[in-house]
Amino acid sequence: MESERGATTAAAPSPRKPRPERSQLARRHVLRGASFALVTALLLSVLGRPGSSRDGAKVRRPSSSSMADVYEQGELTPLQRHVAFFDRDKDGVIYSSETYEGFRAIGCGVPLSAAAAIFINGGLGPKTIPENEKTPPFKLPIYVKNIHKGKHGSDSDVYDAHGRFVPEKFEEIFKKHAHTRPDALTGKELQELLEANREPKDFKGWLGGFTEWKVLYYVCKDKDGFLHKDTARAVYDGSLFERLENERKSKESTS
């Protein structure tokens, strides 16, 4: 008979945490999906449709003398051309619903398009509204003629204070931060650019620059993760947006 004195007792295995049942996991996914759908629906209800209110009644647009003639006064500045794509009815005013439609037109999903519309119009719009101009509630209009007033800090200064393109500043982006290839940026190099542009305590500027560049990188990077110089250049004059919309339409027509 073995002596109990020398016997060792094996450590009892720690009890495993019970795994959630499949029904519980399914309920979680349903709740997450429902929450996501609810938030998206709320955003879209706030965005509404340009020129109409939630109950379908027509909302008065700003008078044509206020902004619509921006397209008739001669050549647009590069910054005005940059945003003109999102002025879907070309009346000189970009409502949040038009920003949403513009992002959808270039292939962005509903959540990204809705969030971009709220953020961009909410951040830039108030700076561009002319004095004594009455605007529809919740539509967050951006006035194309005054878009230069919405220029935020912590950027690369590729646009000057008047909305003009500064080639030297654009070239500087790639000279300083394109380490892997001279004509493209990786995601890491893009982050380096954003950090280099940050001004102290300019939280709105940080967020503005982060959103603009990250969305551009997400939409336009190639299969190897490069954002090409020509692509970035096309953003600054707005031609990229039209190209993306045409490419999307072409794919839809052939599918």
TrEMBL record:
Region (Disordered) residue ranges read 1-24, 49-73
Q: Please indicate which superkingdom the organism of origin belongs to.
A: Eukaryota
Pfam families xref list: Caleosin
Q: Cite the InterPro entries for this sequence.
A: Caleosin-related, EF-hand-dom_pair
Drop me one GO molecular function for this one.
monooxygenase activity
Q: Describe the family membership recorded for this protein in Swiss-Prot or TrEMBL.
A: Belongs to the caleosin family.
PANTHER family found in the cross-reference section: INACTIVE PEROXYGENASE-LIKE PROTEIN-RELATED, PEROXYGENASE 3-RELATED
Annotated protein name in UniProt: EF-hand domain-containing protein
Organism encoding this protein: Panicum hallii var. hallii
Which taxonomic lineage does the organism of this UniProt entry have? Eukaryota, Viridiplantae, Streptophyta, Embryophyta, Tracheophyta
